[in-house]
Write a structure and sequence with these properties.
Order of helices and strands: EEHEEEHEEEHEEHHEEEHEEEE
CATH topology of the largest domain: Diaminopimelate Epimerase, Chain A, domain 1
CATH architecture of the largest domain: Roll
Strand content: 35-45%
CATH class of the largest domain: Alpha Beta
Shape: globular
């Protein structure tokens, strides 16, 4: 009997957009090396591994290269699968124990809400060579945990980025968030996220980056509730709402395929 595995497009309401994640559901805990091998085989920006336990579910996330501490789109995808398959009743939240503490997902009328930690964005310096690798000038540079956040002058600048990926990978950070105010009335800010150091040249839609983008743009725009658009090739919409030291992320998800791994736990 194989191990159930799904592929889900997250932060979108239709297939072939948003950010694809694999969701693997072993029947019992498995070794990290095995999970890393599965993530490399799936070759998506993240593969989530979710295992039932007494207080909900344990949840871990792997890129094709490394395990990560926090991943929004794969958490959204996981909650979507648990409700869709009846592993969690539709009227109950999904609770996850993770390396970033307990995370809670809830179904709402327009999709799924995720209760994540807010990540402060103190000002800081960019590593040598980063601006040359990005080909931009910065209005602001911040250091949210293991990432760099760079505000640039316009949405056009964000959309037209063609960074030197090798140059970015030498920066020694998990990822680089490039953001600007939106030129469209449909959203408040736009962003892109590059993480070659974690094995992902550009992530299509990044929930964890919005844990930093939300408090940053709340201060800039004087708003607690906003809509962000991640302007990758696939594109995706992320709702954000500040709630003290937490960020409520919201979005939709669509199952693209389902199957089973032929070997493992």
């Amino acid at each position: 009997m194989g191990i159930p595995i799904y592929q889900v497009d997250a932060f979108t309401n239709h297939m072939f957009a948003g950010n694809p994640a694999a969701v693997c559901i072993p029947r019992r805990p498995v070794e990290a090396d095995w999970m890393q091998s599965v993530a490399a085989e799936m070759n998506l920006s993240e593969t989530a591994f979710v295992v039932s336990q007494d207080n909900g579910f344990s949840l871990r996330w792997f890129t094709p290269a490394v395990e990560v501490d926090l991943c929004g789109h794969a958490t959204l995808a996981t909650a979507h699968v648990l409700w869709e398959t009846g592993r969690v009743p539709s009227d109950q939240p999904a609770r996850f124990q993770t390396r970033s503490g307990e995370l809670i997902a809830r179904q709402v009328s327009n999709g799924i809400e995720l209760d994540f930690p807010a990540i402060p964005v103190p000002p800081g310096d960019a590593p040598d060579g980063m601006f040359a690798a990005l080909g931009v000038e910065a209005r602001f540079v911040g250091r949210p945990r293991s990432d760099i956040l760079i505000e640039v002058d316009s949405e056009d600048t964000v959309r037209s980025l063609r960074p030197d990926i090798k140059g970015l990978s030498a920066a020694g950070v998990r990822g680089v968030i490039v953001t600007a105010r939106s030129a469209s009335p449909d959203w408040d800010f736009v962003s892109r996220f590059f993480a070659p150091g974690a094995g992902v040249d550009e992530d299509p839609v990044t929930g964890s980056a919005h844990c930093a983008l939300a408090p940053y743009w709340a201060e800039q725009l004087g708003k607690q509730e906003m809509i962000g658009y991640q302007a990758s090739k696939r594109g995706g919409v992320v709702g954000v709402r500040l709630a003290g030291d937490r960020v409520i992320l919201s979005g939709q998800a669509v199952t693209v395929l389902q199957g089973a791994l032929c070997a493992g736990s």
